[in-house]
Amino acid sequence: MADITLVRQEATEITEADRVVARRVIFSIVDGLGGTGRRQWRRFWNRVFKLEPGEMIDIKTHQARLGWFHRKHMALEQVLFEAQDKFETFEAFRTWLKVGSGFVDWYPGPKGGVIPVPRSISYSKLEQGDMEKFHGDAIDFLRTEHAGKTLWKHLSVTQRLDVLETILGNFGE
User: Fold this and answer.
1) Which of 11, 86, 111, 130 is deepest in the core (most CB within 10 A)?
2) b/e per residue, 20-57, with b = 16+ CB within 10 A?
3) Range list of H helices, the chain
């Protein structure tokens, strides 16, 4: 979810003709869904146009997740978990994958250092663009020597790559 703060710049006069053109462009490209959505969208732009210099408005955006992409990623994690030898629980595997792919927030640790805290990939908390980035970073991490050695310590490098690429190939990766 993106939180955006807009601030009105210097007092530039916007002519009525410019407002008409701006509205025509804005509302012909994107509009609210249904009557209520259209009214809300127009009220929002009316407020934007009426801001005084230095006045701010905060907006929050959310791009809905694509169900098929979410299911694909979850299925890939499940297959990888079942194929690996290191982790006893799925949650431990997922935490390792998040940390390895850098999908974490960094917090002060109990002894003065910093610790990685994995972020949520919950369907409702992570929008599509961020999920795609995590997925790509996770795939890149899985292809590292460290990840292969962690998941399949008893296999040779070639065998690890074969197992991983077979699994990823089944998911179009």
Assistant:
1) 130
2) eeeeeeeeeeeeeeeeeeeeebeeeeeeeeeeeeeeee
3) 16-29, 34-50, 67-83, 90-100, 128-142, 145-151, 157-170
